[in-house]
Structures are given as structure tokens and as C-alpha cells.
Protein: Carbonic anhydrase
Organism: Roseateles violae
Amino acid sequence: MSTQDLPELLEANKRWAAKTEAREPGFFSRLLQQQTPQYLWIGCADSRVPANELVDLMPGELFVHRNVANVVVHSDLNCLSVMQFAVDHLKVKHIIVVGHSNCGGVRAALTDARVGLVSNWIRHVQDVRNDHQEWLDSLPEESRVNALCELNVLEQARNACQTTVVQDAWLRGQEIVVHGWVYGLHNGLLEDLQITAASQDDVAPAYRRALAAVKSRYA
């Protein structure tokens, strides 16, 4: 057998498909007809943060977009296209921006580490760092990465609220709620950072409350 083959993954897939069908007969036939997720997850590409598994949802129940350091920026047509499809066509009701503790991309942004092409991408996270540099410098060194991980979630969730996709949905009265969460690699738990916005009027006060809560936790 060629060393380029991956039989262990293909066999694992067969076992997973068989177990899924045994647990829910007809699951794949139903899935073939449509996908009706209520949630869009925008998370980090880190392999330790598997979106569906963390919230115990089956295929078809969670629409997912991932990139390094869970960044949402207005120039990223990939992310915006996912958001537009999720909101306009799938009619998701919740957009959840999810960061995680000890994020490598965030650590690189914090320390100005050169990591190749991705250094240009995490420049967006460095912007977050620069906005809060004085406060981050006041923290113990071991706390700064996780603090910036949380700040980054707040900023990217706010960015999601400011996209044309979400703004237009709110203007036409569509129900969309944006959330910001962080996942703890050390304990497997998700934490709601309380930047929750269901309208344009919610965004600024939700951001202020969530930012104050983050800074209070690290005080």
C-alpha cells in the first residue's frame, strides 16, 4: 500500500458513519435533503478546537468558518461570504465568534513573532494588542496571552456586528444575535464573554460591558 494513503482515517470514517446511522436510522438520508443550522460558528483553525464536538451538535446543526485566531475583518471575502450564506440563505439566528486560551496566533501577535505569511494575517490581532497595550503591559506576563485572546474575541465579535451582512439583516428585521465566547484548552469549557448584540443599538454598550468584565477578571 502506498505510504500516501490514509487507510486509518478512511476506516475511522466508516466506523463513524455506521455508528451514526445505527444511533439515528435515516440520518444521512435526511441530511441529504437540507441543512438547517441555527448557528454560525466563527472560530480558530486550531485542531484542538473542534466546533461541533465542543457543543455536542451533529452535522447539519452548526455552520462553521475557521481561520487563524478567529479574525473577522471587512476585507476578508471568504469570511464575509460564509456569513452572507449563513444569514441570507440558511437563516441562522446566532453568530458565535469563538477564541481559545493559549492561542498560537494571538501569542505570535502579542510578541511580534515572525511566523511567515500568517504574520500579515495576525496583524489584525496586533491592532487589538496596540489598542490595549498599556493595560496588557500592566498584567503579569503569564496572563497576557489569554487576556489578549479574550480582547480579540470582543473586537472580532464587534467587527461581525459591523459587517454589511449583519447590518442589513438587522435593518430588514431579521433575527440575528452575535455572541463572543472563549474556549479553555485546560478544562474543555466554553465561556460566554457577554458581548451579545441583537441590534445595532446593542453593540456599543455590550462591548463596553464585556471589556470592563475582561479587565475586572484580570485585575
